[in-house]
């Protein structure tokens, strides 16, 4: 007989949340196809189809108010902020990492100190990036001032950076009469135009810690005098060089210059799509902020690593000779396809040539824990800015919540919520279940959880725990199993409170990932939620469905289950406003009972026509 679980709610701290059921989380890891590719359309500016209304200025007051209230204890006192200044940081202002890369070597280039293994830098720039005055300055007065502005397609504005079509569309959307009907009554005065807030959570320049660039021949003749890197000119295949790009982290510009020199020395030829010959197609640079070092992925026109030789070895040698301190790691992605994908998706096409596998970034909340990334995993383009967004999302999650995070990547948002609770509240999250379809994330997640205090993640001594999997399995093997339709069962790789499922969001839901969860966090790709996920979220609550946490405990057939039945809060993080508008419209016009509590636009890519939006939906 299936066991029914009882509801328990220890805390009254959240006015809206009723806690779900107790119990342990099921252990299945489902595997499915990863989508690791990025389309070349990512190089072109985004297009919006919503009609912009008159640009009427941007609002920030509510965001500031929400931030200050969410950071208060139940008695109204200010919660203790965990972002104490890092003792090892010299000087005033700036982040620990900035201070870590402020000296010059004899070539006039910055030299880098690798941070001490034990010292974990914290967000010393948190206060500046959330200051209302700084925000106003960034929105209205600051300029990007880049020499490439006239020719480069990357930026569309240099000043008044919120004056972009996407934000105009968002303002129009969130102030439309029907949306006003859908706003949670106590969060908003209907006559007030300030519901939608816009903030700039990082400086306007040097924010880009990840860049994908096109390789083109340096001279017009297709000779081997090296390559130049840049972006496609708008609506063309002509490449514009951007050596002094003002929004790049300085390490990216330095890496561009070094790679260009090295290709000339090593005689590397850029790929020509017209002739279908040449070697280097694209390059991805990812900066590890604490060290300023760069992980570089060379996208090579080859099927196998063997075909890259001996040119690749010559190039890597040259890179090490020219700037040995710069490189964190060098990877090759063998991509000989004729399609639009920048990166070949098959893990067998990825090869780590030098350096460590993982890039490490401080968890955005608190002063403990790390996040781990590889070039095969998704990583935000503006990590400083996303740190603020993650803090905001974390503070929206009620105490003792059961959180299901879909499209979780390496678990950045969910683990931030866990750290926020552990740092500020007595009881922390009840549990956190993350999932993503890319199998490379699971190991990064496990490492991140391993870097947290054991009691945060619900285990005694992490060194005593049993091995997560009996058999060692590579990403390529996982991929093969998924392609043959197999699912792999494994013990949860991490403590009792946290787990990771490798599955599409739709599959994760239908295997019970959100059963019992009162909070769901979604951060889908630009195209928005999968249809099946949206469909589930649009179903009204079935009051007769038992609140259970595991599919095996359902007392109804799976086909009749409502897989998000326990969710009362939905936090939707969106990088594609058009898709968000579509999904929000469906959620709010469905019978699911969702109301919109808040909508905040984060200008995460200052200069470009892009806004990241966080919408909070609630239902009783
Ligand atoms: C915008 S990223 C967000 C990741 C994470 N929140 C972060 O900030 O690092 C979107 C994630 O969705 C994943 N993804 C894309 N399509 C998916 C699908 N159908 N089901 C599950 N995950 C998917 C990608 O692998 C990627 O990790």
UniProtKB/TrEMBL annotation:
Biased composition (Low complexity): 97-106
Organism domain of life: Eukaryota
UniProt-recorded name of the protein: Uncharacterized RNA methyltransferase pc1998
Positions contributing to S-adenosyl-L-methionine binding: 380, 407, 436, 523
Native organism: Seminavis robusta
Family classification: Belongs to the class I-like SAM-binding methyltransferase superfamily. RNA M5U methyltransferase family.
Gene Ontology molecular function, alphabetical: RNA methyltransferase activity
Transmembrane spans: none
Active-site feature positions: 575
Organism classification: Eukaryota, Sar, Stramenopiles, Ochrophyta, Bacillariophyta
Region called Disordered, residue ranges: 1-21, 66-121
């Amino acid at each position: 007989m299936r066991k029914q679980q009882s509801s328990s709610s220890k805390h009254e701290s959240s006015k809206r949340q009723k806690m779900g059921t107790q119990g342990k989380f099921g252990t299945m890891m489902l595997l499915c196809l990863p989508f690791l590719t990025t389309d070349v359309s990512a190089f072109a500016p985004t297009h919006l189809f919503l009609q912009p209304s008159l640009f009427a200025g941007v609002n920030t007051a509510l965001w500031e108010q929400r931030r200050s209230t969410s950071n208060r204890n139940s008695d109204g006192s200010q919660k203790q902020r965990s972002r104490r200044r890092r003792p090892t940081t010299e000087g005033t202002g700036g982040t620990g990492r900035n201070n870590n890369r402020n000296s010059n070597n004899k070539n006039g280039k910055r030299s880098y100190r690798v941070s001490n293994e034990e010292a974990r830098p914290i967000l010393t720039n948190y206060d500046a990036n959330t200051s209302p005055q700084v925000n106003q300055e960034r929105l209205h007065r600051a300029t990007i001032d880049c020499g490439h502005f006239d020719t480069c397609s990357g930026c569309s504005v240099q000043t008044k950076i919120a004056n972009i079509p996407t934000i105009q569309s968002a303002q129009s959307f969130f102030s439309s009469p029907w949306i006003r009907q859908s706003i949670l009554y106590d969060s908003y005065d209907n006559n007030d135009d300030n519901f939608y807030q816009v903030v700039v959570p990082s400086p306007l320049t040097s924010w880009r810690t990840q860049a994908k660039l096109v390789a083109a021949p340096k001279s017009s003749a297709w000779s081997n005098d090296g390559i130049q890197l840049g972006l496609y000119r708008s609506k063309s295949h002509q490449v514009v060089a951007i050596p002094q790009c003002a929004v790049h982290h300085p390490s990216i510009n330095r890496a561009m210059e070094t790679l260009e020199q090295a290709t000339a020395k090593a005689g590397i030829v850029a790929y020509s799509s017209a002739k279908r010959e040449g070697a280097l197609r694209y390059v991805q640079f990812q900066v590890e902020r604490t060290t300023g070092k760069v992980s570089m992925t060379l996208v090579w026109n080859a099927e196998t690593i063997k075909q890259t030789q001996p040119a690749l070895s010559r190039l890597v040698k040259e890179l090490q000779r020219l700037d040995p301190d710069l490189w964190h790691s060098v990877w090759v992605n063998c991509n000989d396809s004729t399609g639009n994908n920048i990166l070949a998706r098959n893990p067998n096409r990825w090869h780590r040539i030098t350096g460590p596998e993982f890039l490490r970034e401080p968890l955005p909340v608190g002063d403990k824990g790390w996040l781990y990334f590889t070039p095969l995993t998704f990583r935000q383009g503006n990590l400083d800015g996303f740190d603020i967004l993650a803090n905001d999302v974390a503070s929206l999650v009620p105490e003792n919540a059961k959180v299901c995070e879909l499209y979780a990547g390496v678990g950045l948002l969910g683990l931030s919520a866990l750290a926020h609770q552990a740092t500020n509240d007595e009881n922390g999250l009840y549990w956190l279940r993350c999932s993503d379809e890319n199998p490379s994330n699971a190991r990064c997640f496990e490492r991140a959880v391993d870097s947290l205090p054991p009691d945060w993640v619900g285990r005694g001594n992490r060194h005593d725990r049993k091995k997560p999997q009996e058999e060692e399995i590579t990403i390529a093997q996982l991929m093969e199993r998924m392609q043959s339709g197999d699912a792999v069962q494994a013990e949860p790789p991490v403590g009792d409170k946290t787990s990771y499922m490798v599955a599409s969001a739709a599959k994760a839901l239908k295997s019970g990932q959100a059963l019992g969860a009162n909070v769901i966090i979604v951060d889908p790709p630009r195209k928005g939620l999968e249809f099946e996920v949206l469909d589930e979220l649009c179903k009204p609550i079935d009051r007769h469905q038992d609140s259970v946490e595991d599919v095996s405990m359902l007392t109804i057939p799976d086909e009749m289950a409502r897989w998000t039945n326990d969710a009362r809060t939905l936090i939707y993080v969106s990088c594609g406003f058009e898709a968000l508008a579509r999904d929000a419209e469906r959620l709010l016009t469905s019978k699911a009972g969702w109301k919109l509590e808040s909508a905040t636009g984060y200008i995460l890519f200052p200069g470009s026509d892009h806004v990241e939006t966080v919408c909070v939906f609630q239902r009783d």
